[in-house]
């Protein structure tokens, strides 16, 4: 079995792969895609990994809520998620767990990224791109808040939740990739040629 951090390794590899694909390093990988579509592919991969990680944090949250503990992530020490994801005061906002918020958010963002990847010449592509970018921005506020919670607010702080950190990296990467793509689009560098 992969152990408590096996899924984290898999999800982190997916997120990292997407970041690499969409970065300038991805150009040297010789994908048979235009620069824009390569970056959109990287965005799809990042968001897929982040969605999977959000789902896993929801599994951890529900197990802690049901049983008071989990075998899916360490429950004590500096690097652990039990006290962060299981904290009744900080693990939810308006009665919705952060994992569920991540699942919903990344499902919408992934849908938009897939739509842009397969339809970059659609008349509405620039609108969908702007909507995706604007929808991603509140995620940065969520990341900042959750980092504060991990470092200062949960019992026994600081605690670093590795699954949460993977979601944070994926969220920041999503915003950056969307920002670059949006700038490309606004500057007329949106490369939509058929490959």
* Structure class: mainly alpha
CATH topology: de novo design (two linked rop proteins)
Summarize the amount of helix as a percent range.
55-70%
Number of strands: 2
Largest sheet: 2 strands, antiparallel
Binned strand content: under 5%
Please write the CATH class name.
Answer: Mainly Alpha
Radius of gyration from the alpha-carbon trace, in angstroms: 18 Å
The CATH architecture comes to Up-down Bundle
- The CATH homologous superfamily name equals VKOR domain
- Secondary-structure element string: HHHHEEHHH
Number of helices: 7
Short description:
The protein is mainly α and 195 residues long. Helices cover 68% and strands 2% of the residues. Strand 1 and strand 2 form a beta hairpin.
What do you see in this structure?
With 195 residues, the protein is mostly helical. It has a single domain, classed as de novo design (two linked rop proteins). The protein has seven helices and two strands. The protein has a two-stranded antiparallel sheet with strand order 1-2. A hairpin with a 2-residue loop joins strand 1 and strand 2 (96-97). Helix 6 runs antiparallel to helix 7 (162-186). The chain is elongated and about 55 Å long.
